[in-house]
Amino acid sequence: MNQRIPRFRNAEIDEICETLIKQHEGAAYGTRPIDIVDFAIRYFKLRILYVSIAENDPNKLSFLSDGVTPITVYHDGYVQKGTFPEKIILLDKILKRPTERNRRYFCIAHEVFHYIESILTNSPVVSAFHTEFDNNQNYQLDELAAIMNIRECQADRGAAALLMPATLLRNTCVQFTGNKPLRIYGENVFTSKDKDILQDMAEYLGVSFTALIIRMKQMKLFEKHRMDEYITTEMHLNGGKAGG
Q: 209 or 8: which carries more pLDDT confidence?
């Protein structure tokens, strides 16, 4: 019989993750970026280990070990397949680079949520790779299904909720904007000034620009405007109307 995939509503994921972070942070909650490494190690007693992952897909960056499922790695100059003890988050060594900080944090948060999921469902950890989608990669159907499955989507939502809990994200918006609204035109367009602010916010929180935008959309933190307003006010065009 196929294993039942747990489904959590997004609101559940957000509330659970925020409460866990709040308990871990204590009085400092909402005033500083989340130290996801400390959260993983101290709150859940997980270990983090860097290895050279040698799976066929180079976009497989992290793995939460269940003590049973094997993983292929480079070790002592050889490709070896083996298992690791439970409660170890395996990260590819490429993520140790300073330039990979944001991806490193997201991968750790993603795997931490998988562990949280096992607690919520009172079930063993289900090992799976966190694989970044690559537009240039030709995926087989089974590979694409693994990337897009419900559990992985939930873990991505959980990772964002752990790194950007609601109170922290709202406080960060106020800190960087002086409580002025950040405008979004259409679904994806910002003024260059607001884009700079968002990039500074993402760097401060230790997340990618894209992850921040997705999270802020989820929390409805943007002031929405029509694209024709952007064309008129920001590009100073008159929408194709004849000028005088």
A: 209
H/E stretch holding 21: helix 10-25
CA proximity to 126, closest of 113, 116, 114: 114
* b/e burial code for range 11-20 (CB count within 10 A of at least 16 → b): eebbebbbeb
What DSSP state is assigned to residue 58? T
Closest CA to 159 of 60, 40, 43, 50: 40
pLDDT digits (tens, 9 = 90+) for 68-94: 999 999 988 899 999 999 999 999 999
pTM, full prediction: 0.86
Residue 165 has pLDDT above 80, yes or no: yes
| DSSP-H helix ranges across 75-149 | 101-120, 141-148
Torsion of CA 214, 179, 18, 89, to 10 degrees: 50
The whole-number average pLDDT for the span 132-143 is 46
What single-letter amino acid sits at 124?
A: P
Identify any residues that bridge with 223 across adjacent strands, giving them in sequence order: 183
Q: Token match 């790695």: residue? A: 73
Q: State how far the Cα of 88 lies from the Cα of 65, in Å rounded to an integer.
A: 5
